[in-house]
Amino acid sequence: MPKSKGLKFWNKFERWASHEGIVQAEVAQGMEEFFVDPNRVPHETRQQLRQLFTDWFLLDRKLIRAPLTPMGLYLKAQERRLGAEELAIYRRFSDKNQFGLFRVDETRPGESMDISLMPEGRRFHVVEMAGSQSAKKGDYLIVRLLPFEDHWAMTGVTGAFPSEHSYSLDRAFSGKKKDDPGKFGPRDALGLFMPKIDWMREGLPRVKARLAMLLQRWGVSDITATSVGADIEAAHKRKALELPSLKDILGRAPSLAEAQEMTALLTAWWNLTLLEPEKHFPRGPKETTLLADLRRVVTEKLRGLPEEDADAAAELSREATKEWLDAPQKELEGKTPMEVIRAERKSLGNPREEFGVSLLPTSIRLGKQAAEGQRLANEGRDHLMSRKPREALECLEKAYRLIKDYPESFRILGNMATANVMLGRRDQAMEMLRAALKANPDYDLARNNLRLLEGMSPAEFDLRHREGFFEKMNVVRENGGA
User: Fold this and answer.
1) pLDDT at position 350 over 60
2) Using CA atoms, how far apart are residues 197 and 192, in angstroms rounded to an integer?
3) Does residue 347 fall inside a structural domain?
4) How confident is the prediction for the chain on average, in pLDDT?
5) In a shared domain, residues 64 and 167
6) 224 and 90 share a domain?
7) Which of the residue ranges 39-53, 171-185, 397-411 would you say has the lowest mean pLDDT?
8) Are residues 306 and 449 in the same domain?
């Protein structure tokens, strides 16, 4: 059976990387940057995610001890030992490899398959023995492809999504422009495999317990799980479209991540109590998949609507839901989502025919806490630009405590590192830079600064500091520029 000869070269490179000290010295830190918390990786997908990490680490991540990826270091170190033909192969591996979400178009079991990069649709002929035997037309694969001669080779299949998942992916890609595909990288793929809790399936008692725990952890005393339940019950009696106290509750969240979790809990509580408990039936897999598409559709409809216009958002959400339920979809063989949902319910013994789910069109905002955190971050940055590192560090530390879970908080860590460098604190600065890279592995400024500091001995750092070498360190501005 055929197997791409390109993998022979890839395996040779992997063996070199597994014995190269400079590369292996950064594997542990690379794993922390990539996974953030390796202990959260599900056991059943650990092998696939290890492949995802390995590809990213070897081809995408620049080393701290050398301004090159491991593949780039291999090309530099082995340039004189490799023949011209072999060197050209590895350069193509480095420059032309393709990572992404691919749809299977055609398979020749045990030989090869044709797959298309989504959403742009560019087609690749892949010589692959095992994958072509298991994949079926219409499936989706997350893979890394290497160019070799007249075909492509797979480093390994990170994830495969069979037909029941293909519906959501087809729908998600249907509205995207082929000439504006966006970026889908290894860390985006990682998010598809990390566990998410379906609170609707967990049930109301678990939702109430978790919500009460969050409120207690936040130090909120004037809002309780009991009062939240009473608010939801009252809103249902008034046939309200939104929980009146929702914004107030989310405004107490100490971080964006916890605000998102609270939103999921409140949404589940709202939807679980739309029906009498004895009339609640668990959702089937098709209905669950369809609801995910509905959330995507409603989110797209609400994009750009002013946050303060809650009534308009609720009305638009309701209209979009009705339109989606009654519109035939080619992905459903011409049937409407409501027809498919009812058919599945009937097969599961669920007599309900109405659609008893209301989406809460509320944006997540952290209120005064976020505003204060951003103000302190800006003030700290201004102090740095005025060469006042002590004042800067005081502001930045306060800011980070307030908005540490914001997507852009890694920039605050970068400025905290700069303040520590200006104060002559090498170890503290390196700790901040490593934390910044854990939050964002693509943060090149932090990686370059960490490489600079690690390349100096403590004595050399102290000498450079006394000489004023670090007085013109880059300060990270709000938009990410230096």
Assistant:
1) yes
2) 13
3) yes
4) 83
5) yes
6) no
7) 171-185
8) no
Residue numbers of the domain that contains 335: 281-365
Last residue of a domain, one of 343, 365, 387: 365
Largest CA distance in the chain: 79
pLDDT 10s digits, 418-437:
999 999 999 999 999 999 99
CB-based burial label for 298 (10 Å; 0-12, 13-18, 19+)? buried
Neighbouring CB atoms inside 10 A of 471's CB total 11
CA distance 436 to 421: 15
- Our count of domains for the chain comes to 4
Q: Which residues have C-beta within 8 Å of that of residue 466, sequence separation ≥ 6?
A: none
Cβ-contact 393, 416 below 8 angstroms? yes
* Spatial separation of the C-alpha atoms in residues 214 and 210, rounded to whole Å: 6
Q: Look at residue 113 and give its three-state secondary structure.
A: strand
Helices assigned H by DSSP within 203-336: 204-218, 225-237, 246-250, 256-272, 285-302, 310-326
H/E stretch holding 74: helix 70-78
Which residues, in sequence order, are CB contacts of 376 under 8 Å at separation 6+? Answer: 395, 396, 398, 399, 402
Q: How does residue 239 score in pLDDT terms, banded at 50, 70 and 90?
A: confident
C-alpha neighbours within 13 Å on the C-beta side of residue 143: 26
Tokens for 426, please give them: 């090498």
Out of 264-273, 451-460, 467-476, pick the least confident.
Answer: 467-476
Q: For the whole model, what pTM was predicted?
A: 0.68
Q: Answer yes or no: is 205 within a domain.
A: yes
pLDDT of residue 76: 94
Q: Is the peptide bond before 119 cis (omega within 30 degrees of 0)?
A: yes
